[in-house]
Amino acid sequence: MILSPLKYFWILILKTYLVIKSSWREKQQGKRFDSNAISRQIYFTGVQALPIIILVGLALGTVVIIELSTILNSFGAGKHIERLTVIVLVRELIPIITALIIIGRSGTAMASELSSMKLNREIELIDSLGINIDYFLVLPRLIGTIASLVCLIFILNAVALGGGFLFAKLFSPISHGLIFSNFIRVISLGDVCASLFKAIMFGWTITMVNCHQGLLVKKSFTEVPQTTTEGVVNSIIICFAFSIIISLYILKAA
Q1: How far apart are CA 96 and CA 94, in angstroms?
Q2: Please, are residues 243 and 96 in contact by the beta-carbon 8 Å criterion?
Q3: Structure pTM?
Q4: How confident is the model over 215-232, as a mean pLDDT?
Q5: Which of 23, 98, 136, 233 is 20 to 30 Å from 179 at the Cα level?
Q6: Which of 219, 216, 203 has its CA nearest to residue 95?
Q7: Residue 214: which of 202, 206, 224, 199 has the closest Cα?
Q8: What does the H/E/C string look like for 123-165?
Q9: Which long-range contacts (C-beta less than 8 Å, at least 24 apart) are formed by 2-11?
Q10: b/e map of 2-24 (b: 16 or more CB within 10 Å)?
């Protein structure tokens, strides 16, 4: 049981290597890369998720700023509000919440789409035409998902800090000494790097886990919801593991 998670993670690493290897081989052979597939993935994963991302950012930023302002002021530690807000939002909450939203929207779609394609023998047809599955189906989803997560996390950061600060000022008697420019000033390079690295790792995890699960189906359509559920659960577990490891490394390096 202890080796099972390690074995699963090794399978994801191996499949990533195969995707990179296939892209290099196809490029050497002069085959055209399907940029339209990346654009569609970015549109579905990134653009269509913007409304919910904005709503979540406003709510999350408002609640965190109000709660921290109330609690810290009561202990006479109001000068730490900006820095703690940035740590809680930018470094910790926003990356993982964005990943959870994308797992629910795009991760499930990847797993169910690929499993349906395999059961309908579309994968077999594509393979019989000499088209590399990793290059044609997995790589565009990988690039599109990572790019979308990076953009969404930075958008959510801006909305949570800016919109959250504005809403907190309007609807709650937070400290009048709070200035929005202070939130920007206390953001460190480590915070930005942590958020960016988490975005990349979460995008990789969501894509590889759900593509792997989707291609595992064998002969029955009853396997589709099972593989989709496993993809969601495994994605969440690995994303939380990455988040903890990255945060602990930053704390140790600080």
Answers
A1: 6
A2: yes
A3: 0.90
A4: 88
A5: 98
A6: 203
A7: 224
A8: HHHHHHCCCCHHHHHHHHHHHHHHHHHHHHHHHHHHHHHHHHH
A9: 8/234, 9/238, 11/212
A10: eeeeeeebeebeebbeebeebbe
Contacts 24+ apart (CB under 8 A), 30-37: 31/135, 34/136, 34/140, 37/136, 37/140, 37/141, 37/144
Distance CA 229, CA 112 (A): 10
Quickly state the pLDDT bin for 187 (edges 50, 70, 90): confident
Amino acid at 204: W
55: left (phi over 0), alpha (psi -120 to 50) or beta: alpha
Token digits for 225?
């919801």
And the tokens for 251?
């704390």
Residue 127 one-letter amino acid: D
Residue 75 token pair? 């202990």
Check: CB of residue 102 under 8 Å from CB of residue 90.
Answer: no
Closest CA to 249 of 179, 194, 209, 187: 194
